[in-house]
Amino acid sequence: MHPAILGLAQLAPAIMGLFSKSETANKAAEVVSSVAKAVTGAPTEDAALQALKADPAKLLEYQNAVNAQALSLYQEETKRLEAVNETIRAEAASGDAYVRRWRPTFGYCVALTWVTLMVACSYVIVTDPAQAGTVIAAMGSLSAMWGIALAVLGVAVHERSKDKQVAAGQTPPAGPLAALGALLTRK
Q: Which of 67, 88, 109 represents a domain boundary (last residue)?
């Protein structure tokens, strides 16, 4: 991130909290940049930063404008968190124990298996270094198995997320092929 963006953000502390999350950092950076340029008429963030530091009236105008935009971004973030919480509640409220527990159980099994494999391989490599090449080659031959297990886990997480969105009354986003099809069939 450009140093001037951080300098602009520091001049309007209300927006600083939005820089801590990757989901909102880019939006916050766009806000401080566009507002600073609009208030000062400067073409770059560096020039806008210098202009704001030199003119207290422009600085106050900038802070007020950024605070209004920050409020909007915080409201968006609140809505996003409410949606996440609603989907979690929908999963917890599911009457089907299999639906509620299958994905986490599979995830824990994959993690436990991975840890066990890493501990066993590390143990063999440390206690019998002559076998290190064989162990590493064997681990490479397991990549297809791990690819399948992680693909299954990924599909389960993705599909369960769609189920939770539907249960929360939201429409899950269409996949890229569905979106492309909709564009091609649009009149």
A: 88
